[in-house]
C-alpha cells in the first residue's frame, strides 16, 4: 500500500468511526439482521426499509472496532437509494477489493470510498471486521433473521 492510500485509509476509518453515518434505529424497517464477529467481538444490527426493490432507508447499531463500525457506516451511505441488485454488485466489488489486488480486475472509479479498505488485505483478521456489515446486509435483504457470524 502506498503512503497516500494508507493516509486515506486511516482518515476515512477514523472519521466514520467517530461520526458514523446512519447510526440509528429505523421506525419503518422491513427487514433486520444481526451480525457477530467472534474473533474481534464486533456486533452489528442492521435495519433496512425496502420500497419495492429499492433500499429506501438503512440504519445500523451495535458496537465493535473502528474498522467494523466504519465499514458499516460507509456501507449505509453507499447502498441507500440503490436497488437490491446494485447493492449486491457493490458487495462483490468490495470483496474483490479486500481479497485481491486493486486495479487488476475491479474498476477503481466505481469503487469510491470502498477503495480505502484495500488496506485491510494485509491483515486477514481485519477482513472479517470489514466484511461483517456486508454479510449482515445480505442476510437482511434475503430475509434471513438468524444471527450472521463470520465464522
Ligand atoms: Zn473488528
Topology summary:
Elements: H1 3-18, E1 31-37, E2 42-51, E3 54-63, H2 66-79, H3 84-99, H4 108-111, H5 124-141, E4 148-149
Parallel strand pairs: 1-4
Antiparallel strand pairs: 1-2, 2-3
Helix pairs in contact: 1-2, 2-5, 3-5
Bound molecules: zinc ion.
- CATH-derived architecture: Alpha-Beta Complex
Q: What is the succession of H and E elements?
A: HEEEHHHHE
**End-to-end gap:** 27 Å
Shape: globular
Level of helix content? 40-55%
Give the strand order, joined by hyphens, for the main sheet: 3-2-1-4
Mean pLDDT level: 87
Strand residue percentage: 15-25%
Structural class: alpha+beta
Summed up, the domain count is: 1
Largest β-sheet summary: 4 strands, mixed
- What name does the CATH topology carry? Sufe protein. Chain: A
**How many beta-strand segments?**
4
Bound molecules: zinc ion
CATH class: Alpha Beta
Task: Please tell me how large the radius of gyration is.
Answer: 14 Å
